[in-house]
Amino acid sequence: MVFCCAKQNLKMNRKFKSVCPHDCPDTCGIISHVEDGKLVKVKGDPDHFVTRGFLCQKVMNYPERVYRSDRILYPLKRVDEKGEGKFTRITWDEAIDTIASRFKDITSKYSSESILPFNGSGTLGLINGNVAGKRLFNRLGSSRLERTICSKGGRVGYKYTLGAAFGSDPLAIPQSKLIISWGTNPYYTNIHQIPLIKEAKKNGASYVVVNPYKVKSVEMADLFIQPTPGSDGALALGIMNVIINNSLYDKDFVGNHTEGFEALSKRVQEYPPDKVEDITGVDKKTIKKFAAIYAGNKPSFIYAGSGMQHHTNGGMMIRTISCLPGLVGAWKHPGGGMFYPNSEAFPIKWDKLEGNDLCPNSPRTINMNQLGETLLNARPCIYGLYIYNSNPAAVLFNQRKVINGLCREDLFTVVHEQVLTDTVRYADIVLPATTQFEQTDLHHSYFHLSLQLNEPVIEPLGESKSNINVFNTLAKAMGFKDKCFDETAIDIVNEALKINSQYLRGITLERLRGEGAIRLNMPGEFHMPYQDLNFPTPSGKIEFYSKKMKLDGYDPLPAYISIEEGPLTSPDLYKRYPIYLLTPSAKSFLNSNFANIRNSRNEEKRPTIEMNVNDARKRKIKTGDMVRVFNGRGEVSLWASVGDDVKEGVAVNKGIWWNSLSPGGCNSNQTTSDRLADMGGGSTYNTNLVQIERVNDDKI
């Protein structure tokens, strides 16, 4: 096998090391097979310590994504109504001149804050995902985007307990005696965690799944617990009640390394198992069993998914669950503790690379979850919108607002994209984007704590360009002469690797090219983030009671807060819309990525809502029926699938399906809310009550 870098002849038949760029913990190493300059197949890197030679089904379809007929190959200009998706080809010079002219005009007439960049996680690359765009928009002084859609609320709650958004090393899972998948579906969203869980089970570990939906990993679970959506905080408090009242906690660890145990002991008396049963729908015998298993199996490892914190109580929910490892002393052991996306594991000084010092003002910040509200009602008004690495017309919430905002004729919208997405249809100017196999980037994982270099394996198709190339070109057209806009992707890689940090010591461009994935420099076989049992909280301990929370206006202790749509908080709403709709990831889609790929759609078949058999019977719905799912925010048509994988009163629509590929041109984000979570401005799309009714045959 021959591995090459981008400087070598891309037209030769070779195998290249690449990196999966998508918003997935695995950050897989890829072997790209290129024949006569064309990407013909991709396989998992057998030498990658996490990928282990296999890829998920989504990424296996990548050659089709690269060469699809709807791939955007040239700059385009809108020629019809917004939303129609009709464009004419223009040159790059015309596109850049138009954008620069319009942005200058908006800045002159209004202010630079009337321009908003909108970027998601289409690539998690350091350069094309973060640095390139932030340099330009910092220099411009535009409004800043607060990117909180995924895990921000939970990270804030987690940090109140532990002081940093940095958890256990998941590669130590085989050392664990108990693994808990709490609110996550690893087969669909973190497939390379599965071999680690299986290895632990082979070593005698128990496996527990906590999820309102019967996810695939339940098949290998020793215990499956189905709480009502949004009630996980109460479940955690019920477990603490049993552990504390039965003296099952680690007295030594609690006494030496935690703060506020006495106050916590009083708080958990409010959550006896019978009360928690009423809140969660989990019977008290199961709660007691779960508590005994958790306290009795050491080391224990909790893997908390971001899905459960997409509720109005999401921050406090993760805050509460993160107290559990402190009670049983789990942080003492390799393979013990809790994993919540290791967002702060990579020691990069973002402000240095992203050019915060370039900003001429102190611009406002706009929460990405409320793009629709912002486009319709923000003051000063947004007149310029630049979208990259994202498909907000499909993935954002309260979608009617988003579409209405994108339809504004006085809004100048630029979309830099690879294919004709739902969002592209609302653009004034469309720019063709490179795929991962046509660009250079540096990747770090929020799962396995490593660095990887990606370099091009094929020439860019058509006239497509990477984010770094476009933003540098646009900066010069805007008249910005800062030296950073002359830097190439490799320049930025080298700049990042020169940062003075023990974690980066000895990692060079040459090593990355030669070795592929390189683990960050951390002591020991497995990284133990709190190995010395000093925690970066104000007290230096795990904080069951947090003075900082109190100062920030929160309850300083773990607490259960009812979600804002439910029988207790909004009984009238619940009478009209008595079903909790959850929208987790599908097996073959990643957010809205791959939804246009034929093989991926064939796997998912069609936009479906999974219902409990009792809920379906009440509504005279059977599998295969078209149903209307609706609430006060909007409605969507889906095909029903009836069974027992979801609790009664809960329904699941896995996605995200594009609007243009959905019946009626709408997906389930017509019904989701754009309200913000209790902490960090996080998203709350799983706090979503709906009603479901069968569509008469003559209306299909």
From TrEMBL:
InterPro entries: Asp_de-COase-like_dom_sf, MoPterin_dinucl-bd_dom, Mopterin_OxRdtase, Mopterin_OxRdtase_4Fe-4S_dom, Prok_Mopterin_Oxidored, YoaE_C. Pfam families: Molybdop_Fe4S4, Molybdopterin, Molydop_binding. Its EC number is 1.-.-.-. It comes from the Bacteria. Gene3D superfamilies: 2.40.40.20, 3.40.50.740, ADC-like domains, Dimethylsulfoxide Reductase, domain 2, Formate dehydrogenase/DMSO reductase. The keyword Iron-sulfur applies. SMART domains: Molybdop_Fe4S4. GO terms for molecular function: iron-sulfur cluster binding; metal ion binding; molybdopterin cofactor binding; oxidoreductase activity. CDD domains: MopB_3 (cd02766), MopB_CT_3 (cd02786). Residues 13-70 form the 4Fe-4S Mo/W bis-MGD-type domain. It is an enzyme of class 1 (oxidoreductase). Keywords: Iron, Iron-sulfur, Metal-binding, Oxidoreductase. The keyword Repressor does not apply. Belongs to the prokaryotic molybdopterin-containing oxidoreductase family. PANTHER family: OXIDOREDUCTASE YYAE-RELATED, TRIMETHYLAMINE-N-OXIDE REDUCTASE. This is Molybdopterin oxidoreductase, molybdopterin-containing subunit. It comes from Candidatus Scalindua rubra.
